[in-house]
Specification:
The chain is mainly beta and 76 residues long. It contains one helix and three strands; from the N terminus they run βββα. The protein has one domain (1-59).
């Protein structure tokens, strides 16, 4: 049986975010994933403000070689 102490905690780092200004709305977006320089809240469409949140690092998945081969198979 695994305990909480057995599970390693993910590495976190301070990440710039946009959070909703409305205290009742809990929406936030990573700044790097925002759709504009000053985004509107995706839930309530209100104003958002810049902030910092300590979050796990994003892991970017590499595209598979098979997919690339499939995309260019029509060239052969």
């Amino acid at each position: 049986m695994e305990t909480e102490m057995d599970v390693p905690k993910p590495e976190v780092a301070p990440v710039p975010i946009w959070r909703c200004r409305n205290a009742e709305c809990k929406a936030w977006v990573r700044e790097e994933l925002a759709d504009s320089a000053s985004p509107a809240c995706p839930l309530c469409k209100g104003a958002m403000v810049r902030s910092i949140k300590h979050l796990p690092k994003l892991v970017k998945k590499a595209k598979s070689a098979r997919k690339k081969k499939d995309e260019t198979s029509w060239l052969h």
